[in-house]
Amino acid sequence: MRKIVIAGNWKMHKNQAESLKFVQAFKSKTENTDESREIILCAPFTSLTVMSKNLHGSRVMLGAQNIHWEIEGAYTGEISGEMLTEIGVNYVIVGHSERRQYFGETDETVNLRLKRAQEYRMKPILCVGETKSQRDAGETENIIINQLKQDLVGIDQNNLIIAYEPIWAIGTGDTCESTEANRVIGIIRQQLDNKNVTIQYGGSVKPGNIDEIMSQAEIDGVLVGGASLEAADFARIVNYQ
Ligand code: PGA
After folding, report:
1. Which protein residues touch ligand 1 with a CB less than 6 Å away?
2. How far apart are CA 229 and CA 167, in angstroms?
3. What pLDDT, in 10s, does the model give residues 149-206?
4. What beta strand segments (E) does the chain contain?
5. 8-42 pLDDT per residue, tens
6. Which of 2, 35, 42, 80 has a C-alpha 20 to 30 A away from that of 73?
7. Residue closest to 125 by CA, chosen among 84, 96, 103, 156
8. Exposed, middle or buried by CB within 10 Å (0-12, 13-18, 19+), for 115?
9. Digit-coded pLDDT (tens) for 204-227
């Protein structure tokens, strides 16, 4: 059985007070959410403690946006698995295209981060996806197959979520056609040893397109940026029909 997972990625948004306000408004909106749906909020590091305390006993799980591959050490600006699990973080985004694009993340470091997350029993959300020019050149399938091949070396596919995020669809309002996202996710699934891995779609998901996206057979959830910042919008997404 494939699990449905809806995750919000707040990126570099919300201080502690704003995070707390969101949680207070959002929690009650998920009380009647279908039991089969897992709900995750991937918040900035500075908000994780206050959120962990205030999400206790709710349906909503906590995720981080990065994890370093070493246990500890001289890695200024990085965060360790122990620091995250101590707070109660159970999920972590790894290899987001913004990390790959702006912070020099490579498939090799993505692989190392995935391994460390799993060692700490956190479930990583691995992001893969192609740029606009790669898509236009007809390279989408090759790019993604290649990313998976490198990122998943030695990774336990029983403790993994994958997000297909076409880079041209992130934060642009330019959603990938749901049938096309479904097709690419089907290709991703073919590459996996475990066919039951949850595979999400991400890129301009919003209240207006969630029902259609989730009606696609291969799509097991969504990773949501902009539309996860407002409690009402994200609640509508989590409670898709
Ligand atoms: P978006 O971001 O929903 O704002 O397009 C998605 C993501 O980056 O995960």
Report:
1. 9, 165, 170-171, 202-205, 223-227
2. 20
3. 999 999 999 999 999 999 999 988 888 999 999 999 999 999 999 999 999 999 999 9
4. 4-9, 37-42, 60-64, 91-94, 123-128, 161-164, 198-202, 221-224
5. 999 999 999 999 999 999 999 999 999 999 999 99
6. 42
7. 96
8. middle
9. 999 999 999 999 999 999 999 999
Provide the domain limits for residue 98.
Answer: 4-238
**What's the CATH code of the domain at 73?**
3.20.20.70
Tally of structural domains, the chain: 1
- How far is the centre of ligand 1, averaged over its atoms, from the C-alpha of 126 (Å)? 14
Q: Of all protein residues, whose CA lies closest to atom 6 belonging to ligand 1?
A: 225
Burial of 32 (0-12, 13-18, 19+ CB in 10 A): exposed
